[in-house]
Amino acid sequence: MGIIGEKWSRMRTITAIEVQKKNPKRVNIYLDDQFAFGLSRINAAWLKVGQKLTDAKFAALQEADAREIAMQKALHFLGYRPRSVEEVRKNLQKHEIPSAVIDDTISRLEQGNLLGDGNFAREWVENRSAFRPKGKRALAIELRQKGLTNAVIQEVLDENIDEEALALKAALKYARKLEGLEWPEFRQKMGGYLGRRGFGYDVIAPVTRQAWEEMQDQVANFDNEDLT
Q1: pLDDT in tens for each of the 228 residues of the chain?
Q2: CATH number, position 66
Q3: Alpha-carbon 150 to chain mean position
Q4: Any domain includes 117
Q5: What residues have CB less than 8 Å from 180, skipping those under 6 apart?
Q6: Domain containing residue 28
Q7: pTM attached to this predicted model
Q8: Is 76 exposed, middle or buried (0-12, 13-18, 19+ CB in 10 A)?
Q9: DSSP label at 81?
């Protein structure tokens, strides 16, 4: 038997299993009276003092534990808000999780429908549409910064996004800050605002005019109420 075979066939004895003081969900495993590694209590549930296992089996336990740690960190990271695949990958890399374990974790999350760039992009766009309306150009930039591919971005942005409605929603909210301005200045400021939000001129021009007209109607209605 070669050196490698001898290494992986060697038997070692568990001499102690101790619950970690700082994390009671994990235990420390001692082999031949020396600390070897930590394991989650789930992965260590079937181990007992005096048990003999090969180094290969202990390596498999460590690998399973690494996958469990990576999954728990990923789920914790996802618990705050939806994330892109790239965001999850970078977060796990920050915790020095091995690349192979990261790939396995992402694959398991995708298979469980807990992670996916398509769904992430749709939720991102829906959130922006509800609270901070932006044009497709600005949304595409944001999604690229999250690590999404152009193909995924284009597919999502082509799905029922009414840029004119979004622009009008943003314009009517911003118009309150421009009350009292004359048309030329209103048009300039509103155009700049909508442009910074990623809307194109073909949307900005009609929306700016509509926002102006609606604001004028509101002012007229308010004046009429004062006269009654």
Answers
A1: 343 444 445 788 999 999 999 888 899 999 899 998 888 888 888 889 999 988 888 788 888 889 999 999 999 999 989 999 999 999 999 999 999 999 999 999 999 999 999 999 999 999 999 999 999 999 999 999 999 999 999 999 988 789 999 999 999 999 999 988 999 999 999 999 999 999 999 999 999 999 999 888 876 665 555 545
A2: 1.10.10.10
A3: 17
A4: no
A5: none
A6: 3-111
A7: 0.75
A8: exposed
A9: S
